[in-house]
Amino acid sequence: MLEIPQEYWNKLAEQLILISSLLSGFSIAVVANLLVHDSKTRINNTIFKIATVAAGCFLVSVFASTSILMKTTPGYPLPLDENSLFFPQIVCGITFLLGISSLSAVLALSGWTKSKATGIFTTIIGVITFLFVLTFLTN
Questions:
Q1: Are 113 and 61 in contact (CB under 8 A)?
Q2: 62: part of which helix (H) or strand (E)?
Q3: Distance separating alpha carbons of residues 103 and 76, to the nearest angstrom
Q4: Residue 136 included in any domain
Q5: How many CB atoms lie within 10 A of CB 132?
Q6: Which residue in 6, 25, 1, 21 sits closest to 68, CA to CA?
Q7: With the C-alpha atoms ordered 54, 60, 62, 68, is the resulting torsion angle positive or negative?
Q8: Tens of pLDDT along 28-63?
């Protein structure tokens, strides 16, 4: 099995904190806008719920990444064994991917609030976006 150095995990955690914070803020802005919006349609409620999941996932990803960052920073005061990074790595990876999936779903569903043609367009863009992000995350 390939051993990934702590320096790499440290830099990766820095990047994930930045990306997750930005995407969490965006998701929270969507939730806030839908919260004050008077529309009670099914599609708006679905978008609201999915955006809430995205915001929550990205927030968890931020704090899991912060745990990784703290533990891999030189001078960390507690002993570090190979298993101490396992849980935050798994939580960060899962919640980040769930957040990306949820945000892609919000993007895909957003057009359906306007018209069928716009809904088809945003669905195609949402699926393409998700596939590209997934491709770049796995390569």
A1: no
A2: helix 42-72
A3: 34
A4: no
A5: 11
A6: 6
A7: negative
A8: 999 999 888 888 889 999 999 999 999 999 999 999
Q: Return d(Cα 103, Cα 94) in angstroms, integer.
A: 14
pLDDT interval class at 139 (50, 70, 90): confident
CA–CA distance, 73 with 28 (Å, rounded to integer): 30
Number of domains in the chain: 1
Supply the pLDDT for residue 78.
Answer: 86
- Of 11, 13, 3, 12, nearest in space to 67 by CA: 13
In a domain, 121, yes or no: no
Distance between CA atoms of residues 32 and 39, nearest Å: 13
* Residue 126: both structure tokens together: 């949402």
CA–CA separation, 7 and 72 (whole Å): 7
**Residue 82, SS3 per DSSP:** coil
Q: 22 lies in a domain?
A: yes
Q: What angle, 0 to 180 degrees and rounded to 10, lies between the N-to-C axes of helices 86-110 and 116-138?
A: 160
Domain of 56?
6-99
Domain assignment of residue 39, yes or no: yes
Quick check: 115 and 134 in contact, CB under 8 A? no
* One-letter identity of residue 119: G
**pLDDT the model gives residue 1:** 54
